[in-house]
Amino acid sequence: MTGHEYDVDTAVELLGDHPAGGRRYAATVTDRWSALGGGANGGYLLGICVRALRDEVARHADGHPDPLVVSAFFLRRGVAGPAELHAEAVRVGRRIATAEARLTQAGKETVRVVANFADLGAASGRTEMFAEAPKLPAPEDCVDATGGLSIPGLTIADRFEYRFAEPPGWSRGAPSGSPRMEFWARFKDGREPDTLCLPSIVDAAAPAVVELGEYASSTIELTTHLRARPAPGWLACRVRTSYLIDGYHEEDFEVWDSKGALVAQGRQLALLP
Amino acid sequence: MTGHEYDVDTAVELLGDHPAGGRRYAATVTDRWSALGGGANGGYLLGICVRALRDEVARHADGHPDPLVVSAFFLRRGVAGPAELHAEAVRVGRRIATAEARLTQAGKETVRVVANFADLGAASGRTEMFAEAPKLPAPEDCVDATGGLSIPGLTIADRFEYRFAEPPGWSRGAPSGSPRMEFWARFKDGREPDTLCLPSIVDAAAPAVVELGEYASSTIELTTHLRARPAPGWLACRVRTSYLIDGYHEEDFEVWDSKGALVAQGRQLALLP
User: Fold this and answer.
1) What is the ipTM score, two decimals?
2) Which of A57, B28, B77, B252 has the most CB atoms lying inside 10 A of its own CB?
3) Residue A256, H or E segment
4) Which of A77, A269, A271, A272 should one mutate to test binding to chain B, selecting the residue with the greatest count of B CBs within 10 A?
5) Nearest CA-CA distance, residue A141 and chain B, Å
């Protein structure tokens, strides 16, 4: 791990065995990844869980370095301060290992995560693509439409850089009415993407419903499929909500790397306030 | 519950408290929902888990009759025979209750499920739809393209009826090369749809990759979002795979009811053999 913000702020420290099985870890939720309203961003909390899960899997077997599917249920609002995790392997197979983590703050469970790990570098098999990467101008030809926006409490916006082909409607106070966006994203401090951080990336940007004039939405559950290890550089993101029903909406998030490979698909169910 | 096959075959019996918290249930996995190769269909096993989960949630509070998000990790092949479940409430909130279930056969965990429950009948809030229901002819004007196919061991095919606008390529031995299908579906014995069975429905039909000439695929993880309670009658289904990468593929499955309402979205990650 590096000294980059994301790695520092998702670090976990092994405390020892958990009486119910698995292990206990300590972590510190920082105030550098806060969402609108001041609570910790769910994807950031998930990043802490992924670190503990990978550690737990590695204690049982080598050969499962990459998250494959990560499903997180958000139970309570996370806040800056100490957290404890309980991570336990569920099944460690030859190809796929499964583990569960519970992140607790002040004795109350905040996030529950079940995840699979595998070796995406060793995956081989048939490949057929039926949709393409976002068609965006090169990042240097795009606009930094949201970098100048300063929204009190929204510290996670300071951790990432975004580039749009043109300023999105919501950034100009004129939501388009169509909840879909494509843009480039990267960590502002130069941390390169990997499979560990992608479950955070799919929850880091403004939700697609900002184009409906909705500026907050609470993630209930988020599942990420990791599809390949990302190449260094900018990530091309495509986010879309198709159905907002009685305040509940899904959000689909695709991440493509700088070489044009699909690296992650996220889907969440969220609820408008 | 009724005497319909699905309800009989997903029934759970309370055994008592579990020493680790929550409760123990017994179930019988029948051979009436087997997939190609003879193992129990994952969506069917999931249906058993949903029954135990709903029972567990109802023990803590009223007012959460409908699954909202159901995420299942398939760990081992399920087989006809006895099963035991451990279901435990994670958090029971006013609006949303979360619980976890583990289905075990012969002492080995087969499926792990985390699910939220809520009252979809009480949901209210903004509604905006950005895509439409499948445009299919009325079921009576569609063809029963797969009802005559008899595939040894594939007993789940006898539990459902399907209707297509025209016979799909794979059913004629001529896969189209485009992994997407739309069709009507219902239980053959007349059981009407509800939110409990929808997580099974999204995994019951032939996978979209049959249109790529692939006749088997193992579900690794399946998440279902329940979006509304279905009206009685046929369900209009839309299934699609967009990315097959190194043998892994996602599958998106939408279910719309006979009145044209979206009732469920499923997404799974699966692996070709």
Assistant:
1) 0.97
2) A57
3) strand A248-256
4) A269
5) 28
